[in-house]
Amino acid sequence: VNVKGSALRARVQWVQKMGPDAERTFMEALQPETRSMVQSCILVSDWYPFATFIELNTVIDRLFGKGDLALCKDLGRFACDVNLKTLYRLFFKLGSVKFIIGRCAAAWRVNYDHGEMHVAAMGDDWACLRVTGVPAPHRAHCLAVFGWIERATELSGGKVTRAVERCRLRGDPECEFELAWTT
Ligand SMILES: [Zn+2]
How far is 129 from 107, CA to CA, in rounded Å? Predict the structure, then answer.
């Protein structure tokens, strides 16, 4: 599986926001080949290995979080802020929460070259998104996607009233994200 450079770039931007000391610590903690990739510049429209994406997330969580991957959800929220806002600014201006949720599912193909996300069920003020076909799921990734969808809902004017995550890695049959909101 490959991940779009914009997702990796957002993680690096998150670290840079923490200051030069944090950035130095982060760079030192990366694998040599990942470090040289980050140093040489990440192209937002290029594809990068899923393992590299996971490495950035887990290293950030270990250094700046609690090492329980919880920070990965915040990284997903941040990536939504920096990427989706510029990419889909017009949608956010015009679209309802339901419309944006549908766009989020479709945006999967922009960000990953394997697997898919689709709207499994949707009501007027709730939706369930399901991720399928990811060969080797990782909790860091599932949590990042969860945070990303939650933030997209907020950016489109929804106040999230319920957010439930189900994950294959926790014994659930599917990786699913269920959200309810008020506007
Ligand atoms: Zn999962």
Answer: 12
68 Cα–ligand 1 center, Å = 15
CA distance 12 to 41: 10
Q: What is the pLDDT of residues 128-174, one digit of tens each?
A: 999 999 988 999 999 999 999 999 999 888 999 999 999 999 999 99
Q: From ligand 1's centre to the CA of 150, what distance in Å?
A: 15
pLDDT tens by residue, 100-125: 888 888 889 989 999 999 999 999 99
pTM comes to 0.93
Compute the distance from residue 138 Cα to the ligand 1 centre, in Å: 7
How far away, in angstroms, is 175 Cα from ligand 1 center?
Answer: 4
Cα of 54 from ligand 1 centre, angstroms: 13
